[in-house]
Amino acid sequence: MNAAIVTPGQVPQYGYFADPVAGEKEQIVQVKAAAIHHVVKSIAAGKHYSSGGDQSLVPGVDGVGLLADGSRVYFGAIRKPYGTFAELSITTQGWSMPLLDGLPDATAAAIFNPAMSSWLALTYRAQLQPGETVLVLGATGTSGQLAVQVAKLLGAGKVIAAGRNKAVLEQLRTLGADECIPLDQSPENLVKAFAAQPYDVVIDYLWGEPVMTLITALTGNSLRKEAPRTRLVQVGSMAGDPISLPSGALRSSRLEIMGSGGGSVSIEAIFKVLPEIMKKAVEGKLRINTIEMPLSEVATAWAREIPGGSRLVLVP
């Protein structure tokens, strides 16, 4: 079959790869569309916690395709070395979901992965309550923009968007952001901006220096006043990894740090939220821009700069 082929640390190249053969409880999928998510690049570079080995493989963690019976599905649970950037892929039975007719292939391929990142973080990890305040750290990226929308849909009383792109930050007000915090200011001013109000939940796509600055703003309290409880859910590390976390920061606050990703969220939870995301996408209440390119141009697509709020989708 035609596929994108990558050796960890290298740019994927278009070529021929052995067709997948379904094992027990597996199904072959004819791929219609697959998106280049951040996690896909991280795995291909050998930098993701799920990366392993140095063999050549087909990248891609999810996609849209047709099963043998002709049903159109969103699917994942691929088995290495078979990813979704190919004409054919493989999925575990039960790890696919029929798609509504109103959801185009490219939109379905692009939206589920980033939308799940915040939906699961807010519901299953942070257990967001109606009316609570949510800070989205890294709000100007595709996942962050969806997180702003998801937080509002799930009942957040106030959503604060923090990011570097000031133009995109202002646009986020139309997607549900009540306030915006630019990250491109001095550390001292950023600490003051973060400390201006309490946050019930923080969804973090950045880690690195921005999180350390936020922790400085949220901690260091004395016995004179009990600090407000803040649940920080770590989802991505676009600003660097690791961080320095002083022990006193945890003792002087009610800051709770947790992660959301493979291993911290159950498959049952994932399949409970997928239909909800699909419904909101079809209704136009969750929006994402897509840019389609042929799979044969994967090397060019891999290096292409994509504007925030958009996701590049490969079509075999």
Proportion of helical residues: 25-40%
Major sheet: size, sense and barrel closure? 7 strands, mixed
- Number of distinct beta strands: 15
User: In terms of per-residue confidence, which ranges show pLDDT below 50 for 5 or more consecutive residues?
Assistant: none
The radius of gyration is 20 Å
Strand content: 15-25%
Q: In whole angstroms, how far apart are the ends?
A: 10 Å
Indicate the structural class. alpha/beta
| Oligomer class | single chain
Instruction: State the helix count.
Output: 9
- Kindly report the average pLDDT value: 93
Could you spell the SSE succession in H and E letters?
EEEHEEEEHEHEHEHEHEHEHEHE
Overall 3D form: elongated
What does this structure look like?
By secondary structure, this protein is an alpha/beta fold. 29% of the residues lie in helices and 24% in strands. The protein is built from nine helices and 15 strands. The strands form three sheets. Strands 3, 4, 5, 6, 7, 14 and 15 form a seven-stranded mixed sheet that branches. Strands 10-9-8-11-12-13 form a six-stranded parallel sheet, sandwiched between helices. The chain is elongated. The model has no long low-confidence stretch (mean pLDDT 93).
A few lines on this structure:
The chain is of the alpha/beta class.
Descriptors:
elongated, 316 residues, alpha/beta, 15 strands, 24% strand
